[in-house]
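Dear colleague,

As promised, here are the two records you asked about, laid out in our usual form so they can be pasted straight into your sheet.

NAME FIELD: protein one
SEQUENCE, THEN STRUCTURE:
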Amino acid sequence: MILVHRPNPTLSLARPAATLGLLLGLGLTLSPVTVDAAPAPTTTRPPATTSPPATAKPVTKPATKPATTPATTPATTPATKPATTPATRRRPRPRARPRAVRPTTPTAPRSTGGAAVYKGTAERIFLVGGDLHTGDGTVIRDSIVELNGTFGTISSGGSRASLQGAKVIDVTGKQLTPGFIAADTNLGLVEIGLEQSTRDDSRTSGDPTLDLIRAAHDAALAIHEDSSLIQIQAIEGVTSAAVAPNGGLISGQVAWIDLLFADAALVHKARIAVDANLGRVYGGSRSAALSKLSETLSDARLYQTRKPAYERGDSRQLAAHHLDLEALAPVLRGQAPLTITAHRASDIRAALELAQRYNIKIAIIGGTEAWKAADALARARVPVVLHPTENLPGSLDKLGARLDAAAMLNDAGVTVAITAGGAHNVRNIRQEAGIAAAYGLPRERALTAATLNVARVYGMDREYGSVATGKVANIVVWSGDPLELSSRAERVFIRGRAIPLVSRQTLLRERYRDLSRFKQ
């Protein structure tokens, strides 16, 4: 009986002596066979049944293979399990090629164009019994104001039965106003004025052209929601702000924010306006600055019609970087105003002529001598944002400063808005409005100048500036007349939510109020 043994390469190569002894001990003889060096067949066979050696069936040698052929086992033959043929190997599936991700420019949240959609608390809130100054000159006594992200029902007196199940806050004897709005401020862009690492209000690159025309500088992307200055202004009744960058002939794009401290969604809308400056800001002459601004607007209009040629290099050199020219497109289409800081009367008249030539909307920021051009401003329907207490001429451009400028512009039919400027004390806006009222501006007009008219300047009056159904519910409850310094904000609601009346300053005040705790 001859048993053909197909050697296991692992056994035959690793331990040949032990394998031979095992076979001889069983009384088996070896017959040389030829082992094919080709790869194992790809078809799958059923595994052979393994039997004990004593009852193993003899396997005859194929007749076609001579018995004298020596057995050859290549060293590279893969190891296999005895009596088992390996399964068919599947080709690995190719990995899916990763899809290219198209980079996108980060943008700040935009509004829907109509009334903003903000959700307040889970329950309806009603402010009942206060004297409501709506911001457009209307006063509602014994008012009922519904808050839920936006303003709901607004009425005077009436039954309180319909308020069952809602949260009712009694504000009888209090004064209610829209939240004040800070215009042309760098709140959120500056923390410490003398520490450069805390300033994001200006773009500097070292390139004179890029540093002069900065229209693509978007303030919304640099606002610091954790700035301690935000809450300091908010608890004083300032609920919104138009944040503008500084520097250059064209400073950049203005963002509209709600003063919600540490809220990543405080930016309500980006790119609501483009900020610019006139005066001696370029070429050592106000004439050079005006010419450069005109050239930039012309090239921005040209770029809109010749983009393919510009990309191919078939265009003359333009006045600014193409991204800055692109950022001016909404201004040229009349979708956003160009807010121009100008103080001298001649600069204001030049700005009016520029607006007429390019058919764009503008607003005058500063306007120290705007009262000299009041009739022209009224005819052109160009609003002016004033800083009433800047009545001392800090430069030759402000030689005509006067405290009653707001009243004079209002009497001429100009839309007047009021600002306090800067970042640290925009809360002084109600003091600015009070001084304007003391020098001839009607009190309700002064309140409008610090609320609704600011929203009108930036085209945001459909959503902000007054207490009206559907507008964002920014409202302040005052202990008395809001234009009096002795009054204080008792409750502040932003987007329909009450904010805590706590700031870094109040925390420091409470910490050191009782000095006996710090005994040595």
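NAME FIELD: protein two
SEQUENCE, THEN STRUCTURE:
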Amino acid sequence: MKKILFLLAILSTLSLQARQWTTDEVKDIIRKVNTYWQANHPAEVRAFWDEAAYHTGNMEAYKLLKDKGMLDYSIRWAEHNHWKGATESDAKKWKYRQYGEGQDYVLFGDWQICFQTYIDLYNLDETDKKSEQKVARAKEVMGYEADSKAHDYWWWADALYMVMPVMTKMYRLTGDTKYLDKLYENLCFSDSIMLDNATGLYFRDGKYVYPKHKTANGKKDFWARGDGWVLAGLAKVLQDMPKDYCHQPFFAEKFVNLAGAVRGLQQPQGHWTRSMMDPEHAPGFETSGTAFFCYGLLWGINNGYLPKKMYAQTVERAWHYLSEVALQTRGKVGYVQPIGERAIPGQTVDANSQANFGVGAFLLATCEYCRYLQTEKLSLTFQNESDRQRQEVAEFDLQRVCEQLGISSEEPVVIENLAGQEVDYQKTYDGKLLLFVSVHPRGKASFTISKGKPSTPKAFVRGKVYPIRKDDLTWENDRSAYRIYGPALQKTGERSFGIDVWVKNTPELVVEERYTKDREGNLMEDSLRKAGQKVAFAEIDRSTSFHLDHGNGMDAYGVGPSLGCGAPALMNDGQLVFPYCYKTCRILDNGPLRFTAELTYGTTSDGVTEHRLISLDKGSHFNRMTVWYDGIGKPTALAAGVVLHGDEGLALGKNYLRYADPTDRPDLHQSQVFVATLFPNDVSKTKVLKGELNHAVGIVKNYTGAPYTYYFGSAWSLYDVGSEVQWQNVIDEFMANLRQPLKYDIIK
């Protein structure tokens, strides 16, 4: 039975995703629904919440389609109501603390939602003489509320859709932030009586707070339309609220949290049941809450607040329900729960259940779905003109992308492959967009780029300065890890100059764990040493030291007073002049695809200062190193290379050198650390330098301090490079790829 239900669930999901809608088809639905409603319902009705909620949807339809008939319908409604809500003129008689439909309930939110449409109509008036009558009552009433000391206006969830967007529209209308401040103040009160902090959802009002009120099955009773009002209201607020407003992050966080809670309660058929956490309490389809949720989630995706990857299936399911179930043949929108305030067991909600506010919600969702489909996309293509399979981090110009999308470089984008799957990317400090691509020989890989919020990417590259380990700068990717020693180590007098290699046999990031484990071991060892517990001390060291392999690699590479793996050094009379430890460090990029750091070293007695720019990409065995110097008075020689711990395993090429290091304890580790330094910009020669520790180096003669770029890297025989022959192949392929980079093209 379980297998049958599982298969039915899969088939249901596939059926929901089967149809591909076009924007023209969605626009036809908008026209069909709105034509049906307006043909069967006069515009000349009161300005109370249910009618006004319809007009918020009608205005969205007009903004999208520019259909003058739709605009005229809302104008006739507004004029019929003299551009007012409740009409009582004496402010001393204005009420709001309980439900009321009388003309004295001026401050009651159900009489204020009409101001959303009045302000929109005012803003759409392109004549030289806008009629202030359209917004006079809105300014009078909302100005009074904004200036008042009371903050308990919004005591039911519906009000957060009725009035919150009015406040932001009033700010846009007047430029006065008092409306935003009052919005924040009022919402804080609402949160204090209706917000369930455990879920991020809202109870309809104080009467329904759990455990005072429960569903038929003893669960929390969150009314779908009530939370739909809230999510849609927050979307409208964020649309008009300036991003630099002091409380904007509060509203954005609330919107994202509520969206996440809503997403998790959707039914397989695409709708939300009236009692969201207890479908059995009032089972069956319901359109108004579902439409408001669909609108809010789509708006979040379209405006960069919600990641498409996470929410696409949710909105597609909701759209399937709205377009295939809720929408009836002639344009009627069915399955709308009648006016009320809770999920009522046994209440009839069927295909003939329609309401003005339900149509308004449907129009909001449909318009936003149309925008979702018509999101502008750029076509990005990478071409591999070589005869080799390529998989690497490719880079392209961020500014070019932003200009073609009409966005700033700070705004996020979404990159997808041909199957519509989101692909992780990275923006760099120097204005590049990075993408990890795999391209067939002589092949092309294609992607699309659009505005939107990306999902949180998995990090394959990361680096950090570790004060707990004497200011080590340590970074890693999915191949290897490296560290450079910092100023705290230099103060101890320990002679460690070069670049260290930490081997690993996993693509996961492990450096942080190694430092933590080693640090905890050191603390325990200190106590055991003082207590004379030699056996226990040795056991702790064996189980925590990062110089031993605990399953994912280790630091088994000897550096000391040497270049280590790939460090640069100036030369004096044929000898290396080591720069010691870095003085300052700036991390410029930190994953998920590239790490970049800029290092400055202390000025020598000759007035020379060294600078390094190091970067490491996902999937690469090699770091890119650019080194330059200030203060070189006359041409000298620049060297870079690796320390040698024996005579075997060394190969010197014209523009590279490689070495199979036997590790710092060959008898124990029985593996090799393959290291190399590559010089694609050529060097004068490669050679072995004898000294306190021997080195294999590439030497650049007549060097005057200008930026010089080369590469250094490593691999481990117990991971992905098992022999010197394989290491040579890796080097040859990397150098060939540098000579023939991938080409890219961006087409709008």
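A couple of things worth noting about protein two: The CA atoms of residues 200 and 260 lie 9 Å apart. The longest strand covers residues 582-590.

Best,
R.
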